[in-house]
Design brief:
Radius of gyration: 12 Å
Shape: globular
Order of helices and strands: HEHEHEH
Helix content: 40-55%
Largest sheet: 3 strands, parallel
Structural class: alpha/beta
Distance between the termini: 31 Å
Strand order of the largest sheet: 1-2-3
Number of helices: 4
Mean pLDDT: 92
Number of strands: 3
Length: about 90
């Protein structure tokens, strides 16, 4: 629930993650999500950020500069499988 952007950044740095998924179920968390995406793009240029959740759609994902919008969990899984098979 509303994880500070710095915490997400720290987790990416510690894990070496190349793909980060963010989900918003309440509109109040979206500003933090946008800030997190901005921070990751600035500090971790090779990281891909995917977003989803009940309050998001593809247009909003583009507006907050996410790299990919996934409609549901299975869409996210399919994208992740493709991402990792293409970026081995």
């Amino acid at each position: 629930r509303d994880v500070p952007p710095e915490k997400v950044y720290e987790a990416v740095m510690q894990s070496g993650a190349r793909l980060v998924g963010l989900s918003a179920l309440m509109t109040t968390t979206v500003p933090s999500m946008e800030e997190t995406i901005r921070m990751l793009h600035e500090r971790c240029p090779g990281v891909t950020v995917i977003v989803g959740g009940a309050v998001l759609n593809e247009e909003y994902a583009e507006m907050i500069h996410a790299d990919k919008y996934c409609e549901d969990a299975m869409d996210t899984v399919r994208f992740a499988q493709s991402f990792y098979s293409d970026n081995v």
